[in-house]
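Today's session is about reading a structure prediction critically. Students often jump straight to the picture, but the first step is always the sequence itself: look for stretches that repeat, for charged clusters, for runs of hydrophobic residues. Only then move on to the predicted structure, which in these notes is written as discrete structure tokens rather than atom positions. Here is the chain we will use throughout the hour.
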Amino acid sequence: MPLPIKKALTHLRVADPVLAGVIDRVGPCRARVYTEGTHFGAVVESIVYQQLSGSAAATIHGRVVALFGGREPTPRALLKLDDTVLRGAGLSGQKTAYVKDLATRAASRRFPLERLHEFGDDEVIATLTTVKGVGRWTAQMFLMFRLGRPDVLPDLDLGIQKGIQRAYGLRRLPTPPQVLKRGAVWAPYRTIASWYLWRLLDLPSA
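Below is the predicted structure for this chain, in token form.
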């Protein structure tokens, strides 16, 4: 479902005058939820994107998809592919192991990957983080931009920490507990607040 942007902006402007200023500087919210394909394909893509620039990750992900005729792989199709072929597409050995672990779980049918949209936020995180290479940050990105959950604040994200530091004129980066404390007033729309903090970093310093 789409993010409730209109309601979120009304709440955030009233709840936090500093964030209201950030919203004015950044402009309209263009956050979107990516619902195409399967949850499996979305998690595979998020693993590919870990610790890479957007352009490099997009290139590698495109090569991986090309191995399957331009379509996102199914778990069983990915398991049949030799590891050397995936590494030849640009995946590291570590990420190859991660996507194979995900595929093994998804192919078993005991792992409820394609039903995650039925779960609460904490249950989604708990389920996804049982997969090798999927940490809380990756699970939070899945919640925000795959499932469209409106109240996720990725406290470990360096971009969020830098955005808060810039917006509030802090001398030091806030710690994850400080991020959560400051962001409490943004609930229940912390996903939209997070998007604005990321976009603030794209603007020149005031």
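Discussion point for the tutorial: Residues 93-107 form the longest helix (15 residues).
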